[in-house]
Design goal:
With 346 residues, the protein is of the alpha/beta class. The chain contains 9 helices and 18 strands. The strands form 4 sheets. Strands 3, 5, 6, 9, 10, 17 and 18 form a 7-stranded mixed β-sheet that branches. β12, α5 and β13 form a beta-alpha-beta unit. α3 packs across α4 and α3 crosses α8. The radius of gyration is 20 Å and the shape is globular. The mean pLDDT is 95.
């Protein structure tokens, strides 16, 4: 099979020929139908040696959907041919959090040397993926793989971030989504589908603002000097109840702090390198709460898939053959991907 491999730090990913994996014990082999490409993959490829605990070489790709092709002799909970999406954050499998499907917060996460599929372990930018256990598989039924694969990160991460602030988004509430890319456009849809909140959206790109509006935002505006003034006016001067920040730089933190009302919630998903100074007394709204969500839980992934199968979520995708992975990486680096890039092995 072909696979997109990170062979060593400081080098671009390479297409390589590998043997198809053979499952042992409780392992399962998934024939990959689609693999999403996200900014995290770029971060991994561009990382300096020692910045991450991973040891190349390994196959990239942590957003994976396909069907079960083979099972180890001890595998349970799935069957050959079942169409699935892969839950990507693989933990130790033994701690109480992993047992509850919360591998994203595994107690041993810092000791493993990897974070999951395509993140230190062989991932899904390949013809086949070896999965440690069927517990990492969520059935997708007839949902297309090109839709399901991005939902395992772009969808799950957005949903998990929203879950942490949803209590603040009741009747007459306002949510602000900052950054309407692969995650943000799904967050807009999720807020609309699961809360009665009004949704505002901001991005520096006009095409992303248009995507926000197509995704259901009540108002989308480009980032500018008067953005805070414009958005505050939209709330009647009160401010917003929750901010989902998919950028996470100094400018977006400043915007969030200016717009949050007392008791407001800020969930920072983006890794833009911004810093927020916490001081009391200080400039933060009274009752301000900050969360730093990471990925999501396996039960939440099942809920995301259910929303998609019900027609409440649609991923904007650009699709590439696996052989065009270098082009897809380049387009993503340049900010030229509309929504989510998806690689198709076959």
């Amino acid at each position: 099979m072909q696979a997109v491999r990170l062979t060593e730090w400081g080098r671009e990913p390479e297409l390589a020929e590998l043997e198809r994996p053979v499952p042992r014990g409780a392992e399962v082999v998934v024939r990959v139908e689609a693999a999403g490409l996200c900014q995290s993959d770029v971060h991994v490829v561009d990382a300096a040696e020692g910045a991450l605990p991973y040891r190349p070489p390994f196959t990239l790709g942590h957003e994976v959907a396909g069907h079960v092709a083979a099972l180890g002799p001890d595998a349970e909970g799935t069957a050959a041919g079942e169409r699935v999406v892969v839950y990507g954050p693989w933990g130790c499998g033994n701690c109480t959090r992993c047992a509850a499907g919360r591998d994203n917060y595994c107690d041993r996460r810092g000791d493993l040397g990897w974070h999951g599929a395509g993140l230190g372990r062989d991932g899904g930018m390949a013809g086949y993926l070896l999965v440690p256990s069927a517990r990492h598989l969520v059935p997708i039924g007839d949902l297309s793989a090109a839709q399901a694969a991005p939902l395992s990160d772009a969808g799950l991460t957005s949903y998990h971030a929203l879950a942490g602030v949803r209590h603040a988004l009741g009747e007459s509430s306002v949510a602000l989504v900052i950054g309407v890319g692969g995650l943000g456009h799904l967050a807009v849809q999720m807020v609309r589908a699961t809360t009665p909140s009004r949704v505002l959206a901001v991005d520096i790109r006009e095409e992303a603002v248009d995507l926000a509006l197509r995704s259901g935002a009540h108002l989308g505006v480009p980032m500018g000097a008067d953005t805070a003034k414009v958005l505050r006016a939209e709330t009647g001067g009160v401010g917003v109840d929750a901010v989902l920040d998919f950028v996470g730089n100094e400018a977006t933190f400043a915007l969030a702090v200016q717009l949050l009302r007392p008791g407001g919630e800020l969930a920072v998903v983006g890794s833009g390198g911004g810093r927020l100074t916490v001081r009391k007394p200080g400039f933060l709204p009274a009752g301000f709460r900050l969360s730093l969500p990471f990925w999501g839980t396996r039960p939440e992934l099942a809920e995301v898939i259910a929303l998609a199968r019900a027609g409440s979520l649609h991923v904007e995708t650009e699709q590439f053959p696996l052989s065009a992975a270098p082009e897809a990486f380049d387009r993503l680096r340049q900010g030229r991907v509309r929504g989510r890039a998806v690689l198709l092995p076959y």
